């Protein structure tokens, strides 16, 4: 791995140490607008059970918690530093049990089948060790008729080509790409009963 790529991964991909702390601060500012937009596209309802994969410093988690006063928000992130920052940013929700945050990998989610109504990931798919396995695992934990949104800013490095096909291959339907001022988003649903 090149030195530059290693620094970027330690800052933004799987943040660790001082670079991870600084990366979290930067991500909190840079990803807020796209997180807001992706949440709008998912049409989150007050009682939804929502999962965010790769929540970073927890800005999306914070926005989601405001949308689901009678629901719940869960999240996984592979970075211990991001879990720490997100728990601090969402301390009240974590204390009351409305928000659950774990350090975990997307390829083996610690949830029962059909646990979530909606799932989102912002600028994280491109850092997953096995994106196809991660998408299949997300599909497993979503209820029939649930919705997924994968949002990307221009600086994410994620290409658009092949994304809708990858989501369909993981078992989702109605996959479509939506252009945003902040980047782009891929939306899809889980097959109904």
Automatic annotation (TrEMBL):
<dbReference type="GO" id="GO:0016126">
    <property type="term" value="P:sterol biosynthetic process"/>
</dbReference>
<dbReference type="Pfam" id="PF13649">
    <property type="entry name" value="Methyltransf_25"/>
</dbReference>
<dbReference type="InterPro" id="IPR041698">
    <property type="entry name" value="Methyltransf_25"/>
</dbReference>
<feature type="domain" description="Methyltransferase">
    <location>
        <begin position="50"/>
        <end position="146"/>
    </location>
</feature>
<dbReference type="InterPro" id="IPR050447">
    <property type="entry name" value="Erg6_SMT_methyltransf"/>
</dbReference>
<dbReference type="GO" id="GO:0003838">
    <property type="term" value="F:sterol 24-C-methyltransferase activity"/>
</dbReference>
<protein>
    <submittedName>
        <fullName>Class I SAM-dependent methyltransferase</fullName>
    </submittedName>
</protein>
<dbReference type="GO" id="GO:0032259">
    <property type="term" value="P:methylation"/>
</dbReference>
<keyword id="KW-0489">Methyltransferase</keyword>
<dbReference type="InterPro" id="IPR029063">
    <property type="entry name" value="SAM-dependent_MTases_sf"/>
</dbReference>
<keyword id="KW-0808">Transferase</keyword>
């Amino acid at each position: 791995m090149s030195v530059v790529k290693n620094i970027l991964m330690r800052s933004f991909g799987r943040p660790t140490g001082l670079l991870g702390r600084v990366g979290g601060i930067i991500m909190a500012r840079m990803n807020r607008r796209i997180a807001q937009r992706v949440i709008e596209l998912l049409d989150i309802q007050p009682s939804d059970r929502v999962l965010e994969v790769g929540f970073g410093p927890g800005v999306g988690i914070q926005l989601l918690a405001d949308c689901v006063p009678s629901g719940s928000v869960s999240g996984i992130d592979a970075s211990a530093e991001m879990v720490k920052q997100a728990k601090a940013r969402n301390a009240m929700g974590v204390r009351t049990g409305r928000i659950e945050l774990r350090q975990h990998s997307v390829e083996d989610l610690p949830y029962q089948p059909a646990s979530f109504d909606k799932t989102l990931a912002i600028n994280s798919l491109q850092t997953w060790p096995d994106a196809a396995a991660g998408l299949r695992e997300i599909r497993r934990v979503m209820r029939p008729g649930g919705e997924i949104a994968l949002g990307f800013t221009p600086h994410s490095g994620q290409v658009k080509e092949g994304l809708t096909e990858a989501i369909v291959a993981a078992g989702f339907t109605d996959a479509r790409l939506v252009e945003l001022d902040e980047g782009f988003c891929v939306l899809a649903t889980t097959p109904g009963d």
